[in-house]
Amino acid sequence: MTRKYFGTDGIRGLANVAPITPDTVLRLAMAAGQRFRRGGHRHRVVIGKDTRLSGYMLETALTSGFLAMGMDVQLLGPMPTPAVAMLTPSLRADLGVMISASHNPYQDNGIKLFGPDGFKLSDDQEREIEALMDGPRLDLIEPAQLGRAKRLDDAPGRYVEAVKKTFPRGQTLDGLKIVVDCAHGVAYRVAPSVFWELGADVVALGVAPNGTNINDGVGATSPEAMCAAVVAEKAQLGIALDGDADRVIICDETGHVVDGDQVMALIAKSWQAQGRLRDGIVATVMSNLGLERYVADLGLSLVRTQVGDRYVVERMRKDRFALGGEQSGHIIMTDYTTTGDGLIAALQVLAVLVDRPGTPMSALARVFEPVPQRLRNVRHNGDDPLQAEPVKLAIHDAEAALGASGRLLIRRSGTEPVIRVMAEGDDFGLVEQVVDKVADAISQQTGR
User: Fold this and answer.
1) Domain with CATH 3.30.310.50 in the chain
2) How far apart are CA 58 and CA 66, in angstroms?
């Protein structure tokens, strides 16, 4: 059964347009509060947000909804998504909420929910909340049982200390110059503090949020600013976070971007040498075939999931994997976190760099040779063009042409009427050809 409000990563959309409106978000909080009331104890919810202007509106609506259901609210203010995930079980809360649209522009916003264990909710839990939202009534509590709200002023310090503890004991970042791009998002205070307190010379970008500049020409989705600063400042490394700091993109000292697949490979190689890696790693269907081959050469397995870091985490929990992530920079390390954490992932990369003094990041970051990849997005009119016989035939022919030396992936976007056609293989000319044939066949069916 499909979900009405929730997508691949919570609820997301244009601020002040359904479902990201005060009335819908109020009802979401009431429904989630009812779903997570359990036992006779005093219930608690933790709420964090990013730096978007609409965060004030949504924070107030969520707070009202939870208070009406008898839940006390701890307000964190602007804090990274992984900080909310960390503080939810630390504060013995029944629920954690992050107000963010991650890497989207400021006009968008969204809601991510975490259970009492700090993990994102399952599809089934989200369906239960949706049923309550659209149900005939919600069970409001008596006036004497209304919740209370207060600010948790020391939340940034708690998170900074937790992140620093993931860096190897006895190591420092002394002598390293690092460019840190915080995307004018939630990490604008905590990220520079983490690296500076560990000894680095920090050049900070994207640390002046004004409500409307989050992800605007900076951060993980626009790494050009970071790359240019690394070269200009003669830094050893660049770190670009997205708006809610749950993903990271690295660049080496030459300004060359290192994507999430290379980061996972680098960490996997280091952890395997330390005996910390169990069996293999988890990645999505979008990760490069070169990563899969590299992991196999290490004697490990690469397990793929559908796109979305929550699905990576679910598989990691199921089979007890320690490392997983996405090509886009969500890196999950279950020894440390319950969700992607850009700061902790960056520290694991820095730990490798520090452990190899004199070796530049450019020599460490090219862990494997990526297989050529091509992606085309095809918009459609809401019908299902993938069921048309010409499209099925094009897909069949493409898979046959690629054979064992490549891979074809067709998937529908979870947020817009788009079908994504991706292929990869050793022969880039063939990859281009099969992508174009399949994409053109889909376009002909949709009239676009």
Assistant:
1) 373-446
2) 12
Specify the pLDDT at position 353. Answer: 96
Q: CB atoms < 10 A from the CB of 384, how many?
A: 11
Place of tokens 């900070």: 204
- Tokens representing 211? 């409500």
CATH topology of domain 167-256: Alpha-D-Glucose-1,6-Bisphosphate; Chain A, domain 3 (3.40.120)
What pLDDT does 194 receive?
98
Rounded-to-integer distance, Cα 448 and Cα 446, Å: 5
CATH fold, domain 11-156, is Alpha-D-Glucose-1,6-Bisphosphate; Chain A, domain 3 (3.40.120)
pTM > 0.85: yes
Ranges of beta strands (E only) in 389-435 are 406-412, 418-425
CA distance 192 to 180: 7
What is the predicted pLDDT for the residue at 228? 98
pLDDT of 2 reads 67
Residue ranges of alpha helices (H) inside 255-388 are 260-273, 289-297, 309-319, 342-355, 361-365
Task: Please name every residue paired with 282 in a beta bridge, in sequence order, or none if there are none.
Answer: 303, 324
User: What is the per-residue pLDDT for 447?
Assistant: 64
Domain covering 373-446: architecture: 2-Layer Sandwich (3.30)
Sole residue written with tokens 């048309």 = 388
**Selection from 68, 74, 73 nearest residue 143 by Cα:** 68
- In whole angstroms, give the CA distance from residue 192 to residue 245: 12
Q: What is the DSSP letter of 272?
A: H
For 91-126, what is each residue's pLDDT tens digit? Answer: 999 999 999 999 999 999 999 999 999 999 998 999
- Residue 45, token pair as written in the block: 């919810």
Instruction: Identify the pLDDT of residue 435.
Output: 94
- Residue numbers in the chain where pLDDT is lower than 50: none
Q: For residue range 281-298, what is the model confidence (pLDDT) as tens digits?
A: 999 999 999 999 999 999
Instruction: Spot the catalytic one: 54, 64, 102, 222.
Output: 102
Residue 60's alpha-carbon distances to 21, 65, 141, 155, in angstroms, are 11, 9, 19, 19
> How high is the pLDDT of residue 414?
65
Give catalytic status of residue 102 as yes or no.
yes
For the chain, residues classed under CATH 3.40.120.10 are 11-156, 167-256, 258-343+355-365
258-343+355-365 adopts what CATH topology? Answer: Alpha-D-Glucose-1,6-Bisphosphate; Chain A, domain 3 (3.40.120)
